[in-house]
Amino acid sequence: MGRQEAIARSIVLALVNGTQKRARSAWAWILALFSAFFSLYQLHFEKIRPTDFANLRRHHWDVADDAYLDSFRPEGGKKPEESLKATGDMGFSGSTFYATADQKYLVKSVPRHSEHSFFRDDLLTPYVEHMAAQPRSLLVRISDFLESPRLSLGKMLRLAPSHHIVMENIMYGQNEAKARGDVDWEQWDLKPTSYFYPERDIADGRLTSEATKSQLADEFPDKIILSKAQADQLFSSLENDTALLAKYNAVDYSLFLVRIETESGEAGRVADPDQQSPTGQSVIPQDPPAVPPEPPSWRTGVPSSDGKHVYRAAVLDFFWAKHKLQPIFMTFLINAWNLLIHRHGPMSITTTPEEYRQRFLKMCRGYVEVRD
């Protein structure tokens, strides 16, 4: 079994069998611990705060337990690892991504200690309370958090991630759209680009490969066309969400934007789950994995006011906190660079939380055009 398959298998077993307890003899426990220590890729995972996440799913997002677990259960005699499909190693953090077979959920590794410890120890309780109180929050909905508590060679040698989050897939429904022959969905990972990015700004980027620079934040080349009511609701949600993140010292989060092109004047129909395409198929999924609020919403699709597009959006990657050890060290390095070599200003990961929040909100407002 390869690395990706072994990691996927350990994730699925933890999610599907996480609540099952088996009586074991002392000898069986010793063998299990011995096997876990010598595991390189298939680690033993346990759920962090499972009751809190189950409460969010059941009572606030209207996701039944069986429906949730069905996304991870192998079908037709398949192996557990076949329930997840690897989508590659992404980003500078080296995170691994998996998608469920039904495309409803993504599993993302959180390999950096500063990030998973921040989410577990600092942000998790405020996040759970915020998501319960704010149904229109744009913070990505995290449905489970896994950690590997046992000592193993795989963890020590960093061969396999020790923490994973399970979250909603904002791209849910794209595969069905492709199968119908619809236009491809466009996506952007948006952050303020006015910060200092060494990969881009040192020697005009000549010292870094194009592949590395392509992983930097995107720029949206157009405008998000909304009515005033839609824009007000969007900015209200972003104001609330970013206030929470700034309060707990998070920076470097991004707005993940999806744009679906439609025939002129048809955006309202596409964003309505009760409407159908000319082929008789539902134009957006009838059972998105995380509702309410009912469609149209930024999770299922908000129609542009000019009728040409449908938009989805979520705030992602809010695990980088200024008070953790690695961010403190990075801030020291960038401050030294600015003092001794060249004044570039802060990076998005070394600025203050409130300053990042203001630039982030300004970026979002700059991309929106109100057109009633």
From TrEMBL:
A molecular function annotated in GO for this UniProt entry is: 1-phosphatidylinositol-4-phosphate 5-kinase activity
Keywords assigned by UniProt? ATP-binding, Kinase, Membrane, Nucleotide-binding, Transferase, Transmembrane, Transmembrane helix
Chain positions covered by the region annotation Disordered: 266-304
Report the transmembrane regions from the record: 26-45
Please state what the protein is called: SAICAR synthase-like protein
Q: Does the keyword Transit peptide apply?
A: no
PROSITE patterns in the record: PIPK (PS51455)
Q: Where is the composition biased (Pro residues)?
A: 286-296
Origin: domain of life? Eukaryota
